[in-house]
Amino acid sequence: MTILCVRFQLPPKYEAALPGLLGLLEDFTPVVQALPPDGALADLRGAERYFGRGAEELARLIRVRALALYGIDCAIGAGPGPLLARMALGRAEPGEPCAVPEDLVVDFLAERPVAALPGVGTATARTLCEYGLDTLGRVAAAPLSTLQRLVGARTGRELHEKANGIDRGRVVPNAVSRSLAAEHPFAHDELNPDRHRRALLATAEELGSRLRALDTVCRTLTLTVRYADRSSTTRTRTLPEPTAHSPELTRTAYGMYAALGLQRARVRAIALRAEGLTPAEEAAHQLAFDPTDDKLRRIEEVADRARAKFGPRAIVPGTLAA
Amino acid sequence: MPGFTHLHTASGFSLRYGASHPERLAERASERGMDALALTDRDTLAGAVRFAKACAAAGVRPLFGAELAVGAPEPSARQARRRAPVRGGAFVDESTPRVTFLAREGAKGWAELCGIVSASHAGSDEGGIRSAGAAGGRGAAAGRGEGPPLLPWAECAGDGLTVLLGPASDVGRALAAGRPDRAAKLLGPWRERFGDALRLEAVWHGRQGTGPGSLRLAARTVGFAAEQRIRPVLSNAVRYADPGMGPVADVLDAARRLVPVDPRGELDSGEAWLKDAGAMLAAAERIVEAAGYRRDTACRLLEQTRATAAECLVDPEDDLGLGTVHFPEPHLVGAGRRTAQRVLASRAAAGMLRLGYDTRRDYWERVHQELDVIAHHGFASYFLTVAQVVDDVRRMGIRVAARGSGAGSLVNHLLGIAHADPVEHGLLMERFLSKRRVVLPDIDIDVESARRLEVYRAIIGRFGAERVATVAMPETYRVRHAVRDVGAALSMDPADVDRIAKSFPHIRARDARAALEELPELRKLAGEKERYGRLWDLVESLDALPRGVAMHPCGVLLSDSSLLARTPVMPTSGEGFPMSQFDKDDVEDLGLLKLDVLGVRMQSAMAHAVAEVERATGERVDLDALDFERGAGDPATYRLIRSAETLGCFQIESPGQRDLVGRLQPSTFHDLVVDISLFRPGPVAADMVRPFIAARHGRAPVRYPHPDLEAPLRETYGVVVFHEQVIDIVHLMTGCGRDEADRVRRGLSDPESQGRIRVWFAQHAAAKGYDAETIARTWEIVEAFGSYGFCKAHAVAFAVPTYQSAWLKTHHPAAFYAGLLTHDPGMYPKRLLLADARRRGVPILPVDVNRSAATHRIELVSESRESEGSSPEGPAPEGSAPKGPEALSPAGPGPAGPGSVAPGAAGTGGPVRWGLRLALSDVHGISEAEAARIAAGRPYASLLDFWERARPSRPLAQRLARVGALDAFGANRRDLQLHLTELHRGARGMGGGGGQLPLSGGRGTASAGLPDLSPAERLSAELGVLSMDVSRNLMDDHRAFLDELGVVSARRLREARHGETVLVAGAKAATQTPPIRSGKRVVFTTLDDGTGLVDLAFFDDSHEACAHTVFHSWLLLVRGVVQRRGPRSLSVVGSAAWNLAELVELRREGGLDAVAPRLAEPVPTSGGDPTHGRRIQLPTGYEMHPWADLRPAGEEPSKVRKLWHQSPGSAG
Question: Do residues B508 and B624 touch, judged by C-beta distance below 8 A?
């Protein structure tokens, strides 16, 4: 009953508020782990004794403070370990924290579907359901060797432990590892590659400027293309060096897009996500003898300042101006 | 001003390109003062016949042509491979240049046109008729194999053709690209081949730039033509008849290219309509001015166009061959030296001797009469041709039967074409062919559906590919496809489009909005109608446009060797049969002889049943030798028929027929003939059924309008049922002869001629001395029934398989069901047949890889193993018995295991009982090859043995495991699935997670500790994999809930009183809205609840409340009132309906308290007739509800593969 999992109800593209909210949690305990884009884990082991309140009461306190300070509501789950706290969050609503007491862990898990377990993705869940292991109770009852044959040795072991309520995870304080996302929707089914590339340019520019506003750089970039039938394709690429430089992001995004070779696909939205964010000052940058790159970066800096002063549309790439 | 002739016009037969029907184009051309119009469809001549007829009606001279994609003279090596898209597929390639060809010189031009159209299609299939000849010059197509039609350059020739090189041709494209030099180079080969017949086509659609339709390209074309000394012509590249149809063209383009309409991209100009002469003159003036000439040069351009049109002279009668008949050459049908007529006469005489009629004077007279008529028309080769085909089919061991009016001819009977003796049954030759009948007679033959293609191959083999072609059947847009294509073009949400399309019944696209207004089940959709904006307009404008072409299921053209000069032919996809592009009506107009070879599934089913009986018992059953046409027949069979439990029997299995059979109580073959004739839209509409039944059971006296008419009417108790009777009545009353009487009968369906016939009838009958009252009464009968009775020859032909199937059901039920399930002939889903089998006490044996074959089989089940005759579980398969090594001996040659009792054992174990072993072919997604491989490798000793020798795909093996087909190998079904996955992984060389295979000594399969399928999951798996609930009826699971509700089971319903209000429930089997006499729309549906069938009727006052639920749910709970019309006739008139699946779910989650509010929801009541009395007038004078007689909305019950809910744990 000592770990909280908090999910803030952030408005879209407002992840810049997360650090502040994490700070709020840190008023209670120093052991806070960010779960980007909108959540956090907090270990209240010390806080319970310090504040003289139980986890559930503290949860209410956190919600009130978040509302008062930032006007942001949150849902909170509580449990003996991070895993259970996360699963409890799945049951929680704003204002109604869900807590899993230590002695009821097995019962709590038994009825939950396998897909609710963190770390069980759609593929694993599908495999398990195919074999009738649709609830965690059934997973717990299945022999370990069978699980390992189903999903592999390591995943099987972890699954077996988790399903039996053995939570080996702990809260690791990490303030910054987060991600940022930007999405460009289309009003119609869009097939035109030129317009796709313009959308990519716009989102990459947006991501870049938001990253730079946070003084962070990203390590990887993920492209998600959503189609009319609500399916999507995702591609991830690691950048040569962590960066927030828009042309660099754009080039990577173009590369991923070209690799898809889309022709008749009915694209409804293009989304980019920057992941593996680290502080900009920790990032290394390979200097070159070519002055162009340097110039571009200096122009970007100036443009950022102009945008900060006159709004985000003050300076945009020529293709997007039309 | 003289008119203008459009030389380049696409109709709707240019699939997903043209937006107007040829009839509309001809009409508009006439309205706009044009004297001639060309039809140049893309890749097809399919519209030519309709166009010719429409032109004749509109007073316009037709020109024929086609627009074809033409391969380059020297194929370019440029093949830039694009990356394969990860999603959505590649663009449709439309890059080949297209050229318009017009037939110029009469029959020769037409033959050449047919030739190049056929050649352009030949490359698109390997098995095409001409692929061998075309292979050399196929050019770019050779690399593609399959692909859009493409005319190879080598075949692109013809002395009788005029060629228009327009903006889409290679020359036009070079000009658009600003490369007159390249255009000149490309023009060389064309000029060389077509010389003076070459034209350059200028088109102006008011577009900007230099692309197709732009003024600059048109001007460049005219200038280039002058420079190259080639005559230019002006055209408008017409795609639609009227202005304002641009958006429709956009939708068609989108549907063809499989992309959405891009509102910011290049849309259709809206100019490609059938412009009148003035507009075209204005266009010509703009073009010549832009080309730098004086304005009056425009007249020269128009003059060239006119001259080109004037040269193209193809006469529909003389050159297309409308109205002439071509039979295969006599030497092909066994008349080498003698004339066909002589051969026919001698064969008929031989038939007389063979069948033992040679002593019967009346037979001889009839034969001579018939031969006279045949000689009069010169149809002898036709009869010989059909006889030849039937002989060939019979020699192949395929069941064959003649149907249709051809059965009325004694000559047909003597030649062996028709089975029934026409004299015995009183069938008339005049109904089929007479001196006064000018239309081609038609003889239809029924063959086994499973072997229909074999028959086609035999016909092609007999007469040669140059004389035989199948007939095309255009698939046209109806509302559902139109909604789908327009929705996709308008970028609507696919889920929305799917929902809208599925909510409509199968109606015409143009009725979409009217249906929304008037149909109660569409009320909800109508509410959100406005949200979809242009959708409805566009949907309605696609109405009846062809969207694809398929092979007609039965028509085969037989002609002389000139066939390919008269019809364009394309290979069918798949089989590669030559297929004429004309449909069955066109073919008749063209005078091509069409033989209907129908594949009848029931024939296949019966053949399978007979083969099964012989395989399993060695007993040979000859259905054709059953003597039932005369005399009493088999009493047990008629008992079955009278019990109305005729599910699966040919023609008498529908709810209406079961009801009729129950009331009519047939006891002889003739009763069956009458029964089949009565159950037709006409007799039902004319209410001939009630008086007939009353008279038959002696409740009403038999009356004749005049004693003279007793002879023809005696057999049907004074009620007119057959065409033959009307012919006889007219003949008797007026003395006009039967051939004239048949003509009169045909005239009756036309209200105009009816008046004339009435006067004529009264005059002649009075002259014969009948009094006015008799004449009036007789006329009443003739008028009411004349046009809509049923041809007795048809009915006799139908009744034969009806009796045969009922006989099989009575005496060999297991084999009968095996045949039915294998060939699926009926209207009901297979699971219903299975339920019927279970009810009739046929043990159902589940799929088992060691026992099942590719088809359904019968298997001996010893009586001792059967505890209860109709145990729903069926006999336990050996899978549940304890496994010993002796059970599955791999060395054993035959099917092993304790369940298989050798035929000899039957003597010791009481009466023999045959069970139905389900087939592998019903497993979802199994291929024929896989089924055959599994069946051939039996028996299998272990899972590993099965996996290695049968080599099933992984999904297939998993499905087999889920339905218990692998239970014999030990372990539970989920464990088996895991082992299969590992075997699969091992096969891919990746090494399984568990390392080694958990097989103990290669026999049983070890358990992996996974939970087995629960009973509900098993049922769900059976439905999902086999579409049948094998282990028990799916309604059994709800029995407790239904008892709570007080639902009456089908069995108990038989005792219900007339007028009692009851609740019934079950799985929906079939839903229909047939036309009925009252002109109302009645929804008939049948529910199956495991104990029997419940037939339901919903009248229009309940549609508001029920229609949507009835059409769109699978499990139904219905409140209704019992209706009884006879001892065996019972139905329930529904007043409220609920989706049972939903209620079951509510009961499971919230108990009865959750169910109650759902039942308490107010039932919407009908607000009067939404059609405001609109009715369709039938030719019989009866009215039909505008939305009756359609295939209703909702999923076909036979396609339902899911249980009412899919719990997260259920497999798959």
Answer: no
